Amino acid sequence: ITSININSNTMMMIDLEAEPSVELGTDDDNDRIEFGTLAEQRDEADYDDRIDADDDLGKGRIKFPKDKLYGRDAELRQLQDIYSGMCGKIAPGTSLRRQSSLHKLKEEEDEDPAAEPTRAQQQQQQQPPQPQQNRRVVFLGGFSGTGKTTLIQHFVRQISQQHKQLPTPIYIEGKFSQLQSGDPFSAMAQGWNAHILKWIHLATPEQLAKLYKRLRRADLTLESEWTAVLQQTLLPNLPDLLEHIVSVTKTTTASSTSSRSEGSNKSDPQQHDANTLNSSHVEDETAGRKRLKMSTASLEMSTITYAFSHFLRAVCTSQQPLVWMVDDLQWADAASFQLIKTLLTANDIGRCHMLFVGAYRSNEVTDLKPFEELQEKVAAAARDEESAEVVTQMEISTLTPDHVGQFIADSIRKDTTEIEPITEAVYTKTLGNIFFVQQALEELVRQNAIYYDVMCFEWRFGDISRVALEDSLSDDVVQLVQNKLLSLPPSLSQALAVAALTKQSFDITWLSPLVAAVQVAIRESGETKDDNDMDNNNNNEEKDTSSIPTLQKLMKLAFDEGLVLHDNAAVGMAQVPERGQQQWLGFKFAHDRIREAACNTVPKGTDEYDVVLKSIATVLLDQYDRMNNCRSTHSGNNNYTTVTINEDIDWMMFTAVSHLNSISPRHIQAVPVAELNLKVGKLAIAKGAFDESSVFFRAGVERLENYFGMSVWKDHYDLILALYNDWLESEHTLGHYDRANFCVDKVINHATSLGDKLRAQRIYLMLQCGPDNRAYKEAVDPGLEILSLYGVDIPEKPTEKQIRREKFRLQLALRGRNLMCLSTFPIASETPQPGVPEKGQPAPESPMAEEEHTEELSLTSSKKGKTAPYTSDIAGPLIISHITLRNAWLGGRPEVVQMLGHRMLRLALAHQTITKNLAFVLMALGSPSVREEKYERAFLFANASQAILDRFPREKSQDFLMSKVILYSALIVLRLPFRDAIEPFMDMYKGLLAVGDSDTSFGSAMNGMMLYFIAAMPLGSMMEPRLLLYEEAATNLGKSSFITVFGLYRQMLYNLQGGIQASPNPCEIDGPAASERAIVAKSEGPSAKMNNRDIGIIRLQLAVIFSDAEAMEEQLKRLDPYPIFDPPFPRQYWRMTYMGIAALILSRNPNYGGHRRRESCTQLPFVRKREKELIPKWADACLDFFEKLSGFGSPNAQPVYACLKALDKPKIAAFDNAIDVAGNYGLLNLVALMNERCALWLLEECPFDDEKNTFLATEYLKVSMWCYHDWGALNKVNQLERQYSVLAGAMRSKPPSALSSTRRQAYALGVRQSAAFSVSSD
Fold first, then answer.
1. pLDDT tens digit string along 1176-1185?
2. Is 942 exposed, middle or buried (0-12, 13-18, 19+ CB in 10 A)?
3. Residues 1256/1242, Cβ–Cβ less than 8 Å
4. According to the model, what pLDDT value does residue 186 have?
5. Rounded to whole angstroms, how far apart are CA atoms 353 and 87?
């Protein structure tokens, strides 16, 4: 970290009124406002001195210097150096030759970081995905009012207007507030959404087309789930931008088409560039388009981070970097802190050209651990990447007396020697804090210590001593601002107070009813004060002070006094009103101290304060309900589960409920407040802000319990239960297990039915898995105990006899039907209905109970054989059974899995209803059949599970998607062609990443990429970007094991493709993507075993393809210790395929103990032949494995089995059959391999005429080379050309591919029959 101590002799002055992120220039300036960059500032300070004099004469107010910094040149140069380094520029003075070289490289760089690399970048792109560290981070510290924001604003203005050699940045500015009301990501969204409005209103069609191209590549379209995530959290205006771009592009495309149709034959390159979007894409986006419907499902932080990182990578380019300032970082909410921390340490964001400036008050963060952790993590990440220059720490001090004197002299246009008493007095009170200095000067003007002489047109001050001046000034800057507010009209002070109690930026249109409501409430409460609150002497003014025209006049006065700034982004407008017109509707406080002072005009802790807060909350809730077009829960509606998200007005709900929580219980009823806390807590969960949701749920619980005591569980049962249930789930998500346990105990002890206890029981079982979520085995017994409450009695250690009896009962329940009958049953409700009767009433008997039970058990009771009355709803027992079954399956208790799984199927058959969890049950029961090689039974469960999955096509929950991944990898791929399973795995990767389950998500991606290689998908332009995407995402989330796996796959791809990125020996892993030596050196424990297996599989396939017998034997020995059953199934299939091929190839090689193959492929399984040697043992095992799979109709096993049979008993007919079968399934790799092995067999062993055999072998080798070429294994093509001289020029005679490259990417269909057979027929 570069530490910079700013010398007190080089200080700056602040310009509170300048607002470069909002004010825009003239039409000429707009040419440089590309995507909302800065234009030249024009304000009253640009006019002549006489106009300023008239203004001062009329208003008697000081005109502070604008756009002027004092002694800040060194700091501006340092920021410029940081920015230049981020942009890849170099400091002035560099040689012209070097500058020309850099300029040439920059011209070759693609503006989209997600685009394909250019030729100049290929060498660098072949390296592992190490970040280029274009990101820069500046932590800017200083006391409040020292000029942190103005320094960055002036720096951006300087870059935009003066340094033409540097790219003009996008400038985003947001500010957290100490008075914020729990609205998550408020400051993060503030600047971005204002800038999106500028894009909509100011960007040209050409700019929009380029932006949309990058957004599409980042998977940010109107249909994308990532767009929905960002709309729900950070970028509510993003869909508006996308709709606007599509509309503009469609209009532009239609206009250009019409122009061409009128007879113009000349094409305009610029117009063509503006129409880069394909019209079909436009129609796809706009056809039947409705606004995105927001999901109220909870979002994980990893999901939000992933989506926002995609957006940043699309927006930030080298041609237009991003300068993003977040002010008052020490007050950021927990969700924003987490997001910023991840963004500033993520490797993929490291390549974005982004300068992040986190400004904070250094005197207010000593006890705030999250802020300290943020700085430490960013600094540690920079050290790990050996990029210390990425992070810079800056500390801004206050002004020196000389600079204070110069500032005062410039403000009142005097020489510094004339104002020494004023300078000394002001500096003594303010200690050089520029904001304090300004307020002190205005206070002296109000007290006439400084006054404007209208006769001489100059500022004067009397013969007042320094001590007298000091006595006239307060030591508290907030008190000075309050004095200023008291000197203004009471109606303005009241309006500012109301605005300060809402948000930093405010809109007059919604401020007007708030002010009116506060006035009425204060008048009715009898708290009106003659001098401070309202002007009772003017009834007309009192009636009109809340109207929009009056508020505009009042805010114009506040603007002139420097209290507020214009901010029409607050009302969704990007254009400012014409000069001279007073049409401003949006404003923001010029400084948070001003907002604090405005809030303090209403004394806290008083009845008046409660009345004001209640009035504001009531109006905000009414506006929220009206704008959201739904009924509010505080109006008596007890629907505690429905939340409607409207991203533009959600702040109203957060602010209103926060105010209500601050009001004394004497002034408001407890139940409506608790209901609102429940609703806004759910809203926070939908935005991914679990910390904030926990605060609201807890506030609702405390409000009810403090008012009603324990009787709340009787009087308001549904409400308190809903609050506790949501609270416990939020605390569990946050990892606050003690609080979660507290909530679980409350629900279990007070809920009156099993249905009401279900959510608490679910969290309880998850808590039993331990903090690391790995104690699955220990969590089984508590689950069985809870199931006994539902009448489902499962012994802790079922015997074989009990399991057989359970299976028999299932057969009886099926009544001769197939398990597929389950897919025809209706879907059960996910919300169990209460099924426990009131005490004293008889309980219905459970159809699953093994015996009569009369005594109820608590959650942790040790009594066995007793159960509570059974609920008639199936969802409860199935949900608990699913969790328990999963824990038993992962914890290694197969007997419980069998017993409980069959009982759950009986339960579903008895009620003739199903749930989404039933597919996992079928998987758990069917997977042992794969291990036992009972594939017919496994197929039965696979078909049934697939049918149930198809009943839930839109289900996106984490548990469901995780079960679906396991189902596909364990069972469904037994019957589904691998090529058809690739996209489902990719979709599950996205879905799981969206719900925050990164481990299972990357597992799904790993399976998908395995299938890419197994199914012989083309090794073209699609595979490497996908691997890079997964590898970078895994790096970003710190998943080291998946980083290794994807790196291995990428290096395998390079070895097959050839080129400088391939390993020197293609059968080894030693290249830019992965190095076997490095992986083995850093692997230990279970990861070492897994990495050893994965490396062995990859190297074995490479050895088979490149015909390296020595490497085949080496890798066979390496993989020999691993059992046949090695889930997931794709990896087992992959390993067995090439172990079988390698063993059969080596079995015919005299150098490896040439061994004649058996006469039949129906010998005993491999496990009974351990006395055999390595090569024949695995040859037999693999033949047995694929023979059984093929016999039961597995489409993936048939081509491999045909190939193994051809290698086992080589004949031309056998090879032709293998080629034909593999070609039918599109397996170009096996088609090529079988053609090559057939040619080698003809040359070595076939007792025919040598000339004929040579001709046939040559034709087989040609087809082999052509298939390798179509597959993309160019390194193998080169090897064949080098090895066989007869193949020289064979590629020139290659016939056209059967399908176009585009369709071949989708279907990858290869040669359907033996090419040699085709040649002979010709």
1. 889 999 999 9
2. buried
3. yes
4. 78
5. 7
Please identify which residue in the block is written with the tokens 């049918």.
947
pLDDT at 809: 92
459-468, 490-499, 820-829: least confidently modelled range:
459-468
Structure tokens that stand for 992 in this block: 């799981």
- Main-chain phi, psi angles of 589, to 5 degrees: -70, 140
Q: What does the angle CA 1203 – CA 1204 – CA 1205 come to, to the nearest 5 degrees?
A: 90
Is residue 1311 scored above 50 in pLDDT? Answer: no
Give the whole-angstrom CA distance, residue 1103 versus residue 1178: 16
Confirm if 148 and 142 have CB atoms less than 8 A apart. yes
Average pLDDT value for residue range 6-14: 34
For residue 485, give the nearest of 554, 549, 588, 408 by alpha carbon.
554
At residue 162, the pLDDT reads: 75
- Lowest-confidence segment of 223-237, 559-573, 837-851, 1023-1037 by average pLDDT: 837-851
Three-state SS string over 751-780 comes to CCCHHHHHHHHHHHHHHCCCCCCCCCHHHH
Tokens of 624: 């929220």
What residues have CB less than 8 Å from 903, skipping those under 6 apart? 792, 794, 806, 848, 881
Amino acid in the structure at residue 1119: L
pLDDT at 577 over 60: no
Hunting for tokens 């079922």 — which residue is that?
798
Q: Which tokens in the block code for residue 224?
A: 């994308």
Place of tokens 């000394």: 424
Q: Could you give the CA distance from residue 241 to residue 547 in angstroms, rounded to a whole number? A: 33
Q: Which residues on neighbouring strands pair with residue 354, listed in sequence order?
A: 322
Instruction: Please tell me the distance from the alpha carbon of residue 656 to that of residue 641, in angstroms, as a whole number.
Output: 20
**pLDDT of 484 over the 60 cut:** yes
Q: DSSP letters of 89-142?
A: ---TT--HHHHHHHHHHHHHS-S-TTSPPPGGGHHHHTS--------EEEEEEE
pLDDT reported for residue 1275: 93
Summarize the confidence of residues 316-345 as an average pLDDT: 84
- List CB contacts of 736: < 8 A, sequence separation 6 or more: 694
pLDDT in tens, 615-629: 999 999 888 888 776
**Cα–Cα distance between 806 and 800 in angstroms, integer?**
10
User: Which of the 8 DSSP states describes residue 223?
Assistant: T
Distance CA 1045, CA 1097 (A): 12
Distance CA 301, CA 693 (A): 14
Q: Where does residue 1016 rank: exposed (0-12), middle (13-18), buried (19+ CB within 10 A)?
A: buried
Number of other CB atoms surrounding residue 1029 within 10 Å = 17
Q: Which two tokens stand for residue 737?
A: 């297990």
Query: What is the tens place of the pLDDT at every residue in 361-395?
Result: 877 766 566 667 777 777 777 666 555 568 888 88
> What are the two backbone dihedrals, phi and then psi, of residue 174, each rounded to the nearest 5 degrees?
-135, 160
Q: How far apart are CA 842 and CA 838, in angstroms?
A: 9
Cα–Cα distance measured from residue 178 to residue 599, given in angstroms and rounded to the nearest whole number? 12
Pick from 459, 478, 785, 502: which is nearest to 616 by CA? 502
pLDDT level of residue 71 (50, 70, 90 thresholds): low
pLDDT at site 1063: 93
Check pLDDT > 80 for residue 1187.
yes
Give the whole-angstrom CA distance, residue 1086 versus residue 1092: 10
Going by C-beta distance under 8 Å and a sequence separation of 6 or more, which residues neighbour residue 57?
452, 454, 457
Instruction: Note whether 628 and 646 are within 8 A (CB).
Output: yes
For residue 566, the cross-strand partners are 587
Residue 219 to residues 289, 310, 996, 1306, 1310, Cα–Cα distance (Å): 17, 8, 18, 19, 31
Structure tokens at 779: 């969590």
Model confidence at 579: pLDDT above 70: no
